[in-house]
Amino acid sequence: MDVLTALLLLVHLIPVSTAKNGASSKSRKRIMPDPVTEPPVTDPVYEALLYCNIPSVAERSMEGHAPHHFKLVSVHVFIRHGDRYPLYVIPKTKRPEIDCTLVANRKPYHPKLEAFVSHMSKGSGASFESPLNSLPLYPNHPLCEMGELTQTGVVQHLQNGQLLRDIYLKKHKLLPNDWSADQLYLETTGKSRTLQSGLALLYGFLPDFDWKKIYFRHQPSALFCSGSCYCPVRNQYLEKEQRRQYLLRLKNSQLEKTYGEMAKIVDVPTKQLRAANPIDSMLCHLCHNVSFPCTRNGCVDMEHFKVIKTHQIEDERERREKKLYLGYSLLGAHPILNQTIGRMQRATEGRKEELFALYSAHDVTLSPVLSALGLSEARFPRFAARLIFELWQDREKPNEHSVRILYNGVDVTFHTSFCQDHHKRSPKPMCPLENLVRFVKRDMFVALGGSSTNYYDACHREGF
Ligand SMILES: *[C@@H]1O[C@H](CO)[C@@H](O)[C@H](O)[C@H]1NC(C)=O
Ligand SMILES: *[C@@H]1O[C@H](CO)[C@@H](O)[C@H](O)[C@H]1NC(C)=O
What we know:
Layout: H1 3-13, H2 25-31, H3 44-52, E1 70-80, H4 113-120, H5 151-171, E2 184-188, H6 192-205, E3 216-218, H7 232-251, H8 253-266, H9 270-275, H10 278-287, E4 294-295, E5 298-299, H11 302-322, H12 324-348, E6 356-361, H13 363-372, E7 386-394, E8 401-407, E9 410-411, H14 422-425, E10 431-432, H15 433-446, H16 455-459
Parallel strand pairs: 1-6, 2-3, 2-6
Antiparallel strand pairs: 1-7, 4-5, 7-8, 8-9, 8-10
Helix pairs in contact: 5-6, 7-12, 8-11, 12-13, 12-15
The structure holds 2-acetamido-2-deoxy-beta-D-glucopyranose (2 copies).
């Protein structure tokens, strides 16, 4: 058995949590590493395989868990696109041969795969805001194009959709039987992989996928900041964060040595190899069980991979400590969080529109939102990651609304900075909506440490 197979088998054998309680150590372990129970040295290959998110047995999740007297009001879903082909090639090597057509007799498979293809191939009519209309509706190249969604990526989101359907539609009746287009809010960036991921999720989710009821808006910014993207202080945080990253890399002599060795193997200058971001391509090899590339000078191998991945983990650790990324995230995530609480507040007023919102996005979208919410321990968004905000009404006290936050099926509500330890003071298993609103309207700016209490001031603070 080759190494990759052994590792893939290992990840399939990792027990999926069946715990009923979201705070159970097992379920938390997969999402939020626990410094007490997890070994201090994280295993780079184990981490990488979690990132791949290879579909296996159906996943248990904590979405929709609430006492009987709670009514589900609305759901806001942020996803990362599913498994994709690399965005970069390792110079002077053959790129991995991965087939991006969708076929039933190839793994991973989902029972709705053929129906999805046949439905998509009939075309969409006028279901998208320009320029989304020019994008293909499903992956369809015998040799994947750069960044193209793979069959794995489609299956991951069909699964997400099916899971959310069982919970939100079948169990909680979020949408009425005669639901209409107004009840969905759909938004995606302009990449084929995000649009296709959103379509696959909806195909798994909706009881009838009727193009007349689907309208995807186009979001030009990966931060989903719409009309509020201009924020100079956010950019300053980002520049400082990039400087931190650069300095950490320079300190890692083993990393430099590894890039040097790999550059020799592929026979290009080290700088060029590094600029080609080889980890992106190597992850694709790993996730798809395709051996790393070789040249007549030798092979890129698992030891190279481990060094680069270990550095990535180290980088994430330092990123949390130094908090520059947190500053970037608080400002970067404000517009989308503000939009979300606006939508929630309208729902609390009894409006029946936009009960289900879906934002089909990227790691660079989810990561700042997680960080801004105070979930800095959360793992980097894997392929097809999902971050969900649920809004609930207490039927016994109809004026009280509460939220739950779930990341990849794990309830992280009480890990957020706006609701930390709330459950110790309150018997309710969720967080008052006011906490989230107060955080987004004011406290997230206070957390930046200046004197600003609103987005505009925080973005234009002098002398930062
Ligand atoms: C990985 O690939 C090897 C051959 O390249 C194959 O024998 C093995 O079955 C594959 N493993 C998995 C888990 O697909
Ligand atoms: C926040 O949302 C409100 C509407 O809910 C809007 O009027 C305001 O401009 C938004 N602010 C930002 C910075 O996006």
